[in-house]
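To close the chapter, one final illustration. This time we ask the reader to focus less on the individual chains and more on the assembly as a whole: which components sit near each other, and how the overall shape emerges from the parts.
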Amino acid sequence: MAPDSWYVGLSAVLFSIGVVGVIVRRDPLVIFMSIELMLNAANLAFVAFGHRLGSADGQAIVFFVMAVAAAEVAVGLAIIVAIFRLRRRLSVDDLSTMRG
Amino acid sequence: MGVVAFVVIAGIAVGSALGLVAKRNPIHAALFLVVNLGAVAVLYLTLGAQFLAVAQVAVYAGAIMVLFLFAIFVLIPGKEETGPDPRRSYRIVALPVGAALLALLAAVVVVGTRGAGSPAPAPDGVESIARLLFTDYLFPFEVTSVLLLAAMVGVMLLARRREG
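The assembled structure is written out below.
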């Protein structure tokens, strides 16, 4: 059995890769996938902490994160489709209408 | 044995995450994300979270990835990442920022887990999370259903085709 700290370390690696993906990519769909990667890394840390403490609370929180992530993906993809209908282009660099 | 399994699965997870970020084609990125989610589901199993492993495969690798693939089919993206990059100076910063964040998180993990005692006995799989969800977390559990309903209605409003 690998120590729980390894799981938390792996979660840190996955989270950092997700952050780099959000900064590097121009396609909003792939940026969205990178956000899912970061959520997933946080979930892994929650489960590892719960395992370490011998409590199922971490798992319960991950359950709620999954539900919120499902809602977030549905709404986010609908927004992306709506933007694509208006603009016919899908690069985040063009979406500066709301810049203050 | 457990350590070897962890190293192999962690390697798959990190490799697929790197593939997600590096590949141009969004469909490849989506499939890499499926591999990553599957690897993390196996890690949940090794941590004794059987319910979450199954939920991960069903909700993330199943439902959410199907949504992503549908969006890719509808939008047919892929041209965004070609051509000159107007924000190149910002994107060059990404790798140092990611490396700095990773160093910070690694330092926190190393410092935080130093001198930790022996782990507490693990909770017994599905039963403990079921008991928690229907006692301590009953109210958030019910609110989750309202959230999903609101998201469903909102998505229908957003994705509706406007008349005229």
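The helical segments of chain A are 4-24, 28-53, 57-87. The first helix of chain A runs from residue 4 to 24. With these observations in hand, you are ready for the problems at the end of the chapter.
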